[in-house]
């Protein structure tokens, strides 16, 4: 099924507009910004103007809502230009979805209009220094104190944490609850006394956009900071949010894989050895064929999960499959791109080395692929196999 069949005319226009932005504004400057590890403030401002930060916000709150398949394809286009740009809006969209599905009307009206314009940018804070995948073992504690909460703990690998005005913090409001997930809540917190960005984490790739550690030291949050006012519901809420998050990571992988394939295809037609373009050598032609086939399969998996999400179905298995397959595919394509480019693939003068450094993030981010396999297996047993 082509994107013409999936998207409305307005959505195709939006995807095309983002594609043009990537080609005209992003690709000419990405090498310089990425190698200098410079935050892309000007590009983020352009993304605000394009409405990228309001894609999950309803019109009544000032947003520009699109279908989930459209969101996937927009994310792919951004990641094709620079994966860091797609990452800059990933957590923001998940928080918007969390507010939309679970927030009180007061919380929605406080945050969503400014999130739609990008005036307020949001991120999630799940991972901790002592662990990431086992969310029920959280050590960040929010203890009730008078008319609010006092929060102590630390989070790590938090994207955009310095530049996000809103943080959806997963923490324990009842450390003694049994089972443990019943004591977990999401608190909507903002920068203030007791919250510090303790350090920036050095990274292999995913440059420009910062990933930081956050420290909470007697940080005070009001009682109405609990998402939806539903203390103890945070684990279930975040599991729903991560369905969107994993689709977003899958779409990022599609973008990186597509950029690596497109660069390799162009290079294989320009570069000649033994009197002919290298794509005509069977080994290189086979690489290109396998790259394209795997990327097409990954896109179909991701779009299928996106359509199922819009149909109102639970998609933890489908999103897990998409994230698993797309990220592993992006990693293989990035490596094959280096092979096709030969020595130039190892040079920082070409983009393929960046794809090779960016691709592993999607394998370990938003739940490692080992965790995705656990989710898929558990759902297979629960559902009695795959639907026909």
From TrEMBL:
**Cofactor(s) this protein requires:** FAD
**Domain Acyl-CoA dehydrogenase/oxidase N-terminal, which positions?**
8-119
The Gene Ontology terms for molecular function here are: acyl-CoA dehydrogenase activity; flavin adenine dinucleotide binding
Q: Where is the Acyl-CoA oxidase/dehydrogenase middle domain?
A: 124-218
Q: Which Pfam families match?
A: Acyl-CoA_dh_1, Acyl-CoA_dh_M, Acyl-CoA_dh_N
Which residues are in coiled coils?
Answer: none
KW Oxidoreductase (keyword) present: yes
**Family matches, as InterPro entries:** Acyl-CoA_DH_CS (IPR006089), Acyl-CoA_Oxase/DH_mid-dom (IPR006091), Acyl-CoA_Oxase/DH_mid-dom_sf (IPR046373), AcylCo_DH-like_C (IPR036250), AcylCo_DH/oxidase_C (IPR009075), AcylCoA_DH/ox_N (IPR013786), AcylCoA_DH/ox_N_sf (IPR037069), AcylCoA_DH/oxidase_NM_dom_sf (IPR009100)
The protein's UniProt keywords, in alphabetical order, are: FAD, Flavoprotein, Oxidoreductase
Domain (Acyl-CoA dehydrogenase/oxidase C-terminal) spans: 232-380
Similarity comment: Belongs to the acyl-CoA dehydrogenase family.
PANTHER family to which the protein is assigned, alphabetical:
ACYL-COA DEHYDROGENASE, ISOVALERYL-COA DEHYDROGENASE, MITOCHONDRIAL-RELATED
Q: What is this protein called?
A: Isovaleryl-CoA dehydrogenase
């Amino acid at each position: 099924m082509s994107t013409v069949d999936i998207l409305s005319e307005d959505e195709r226009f939006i995807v095309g507009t983002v594609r043009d932005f990537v080609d005209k504004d992003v690709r000419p400057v990405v090498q310089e910004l990425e190698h200098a590890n410079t935050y892309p403030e000007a590009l983020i401002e352009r993304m605000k103007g394009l409405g990228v930060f309001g894609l999950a916000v309803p019109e009544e709150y000032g947003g520009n809502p699109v279908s989930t398949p459209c969101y996937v394809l927009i994310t792919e286009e951004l990641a094709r230009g620079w994966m860091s740009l797609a990452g800059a809006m990933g957590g923001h969209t998940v928080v918007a979805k969390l507010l939309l599905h679970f927030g009180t009307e007061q919380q929605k009206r406080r945050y969503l209009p400014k999130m739609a314009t990008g005036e307020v940018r949001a991120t999630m804070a799940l991972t901790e220094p002592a662990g990431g995948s086992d969310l029920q073992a959280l050590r960040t504690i929010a203890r009730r104190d008078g008319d609010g909460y006092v929060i102590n703990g630390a989070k790590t690998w938090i994207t955009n944490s310095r530049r996000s005005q809103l943080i959806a913090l997963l923490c324990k409001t009842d450390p003694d609850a049994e089972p443990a997930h019943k004591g977990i809540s999401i608190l909507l917190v903002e920068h203030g006394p007791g919250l510090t960005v303790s350090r920036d984490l050095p990274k292999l790739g995913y440059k420009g956009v910062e990933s930081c550690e956050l420290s909470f030291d007697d940080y005070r949050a009001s009682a109405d900071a609990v998402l939806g006012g539903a203390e103890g519901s945070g684990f279930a809420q975040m599991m729903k949010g991560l369905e969107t998050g994993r689709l977003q990571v899958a779409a990022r992988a599609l973008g990186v894989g597509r950029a690596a394939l497109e660069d390799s295809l162009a290079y294989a037609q320009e570069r000649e050895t033994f009197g002919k373009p290298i794509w005509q050598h069977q080994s290189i032609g086979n690489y290109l064929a396998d790259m394209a086939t795997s990327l097409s399969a990954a896109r179909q998996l991701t779009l299928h999960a996106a359509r199922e999400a819009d149909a109102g179905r639970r998609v933890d298995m489908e999103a897990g499959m998409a994230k698993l397959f797309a990220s592993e595919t992006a990693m293989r394509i990035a490596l094959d791109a280096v092979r096709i480019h030969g020595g130039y693939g190892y040079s920082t003068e070409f983009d393929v080395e960046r794809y090779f450094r960016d691709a592993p993030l999607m394998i370990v981010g938003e739940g490692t692929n080992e965790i995705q396999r656990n989710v898929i297996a558990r759902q297979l047993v629960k559902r009695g196999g795959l639907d026909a």
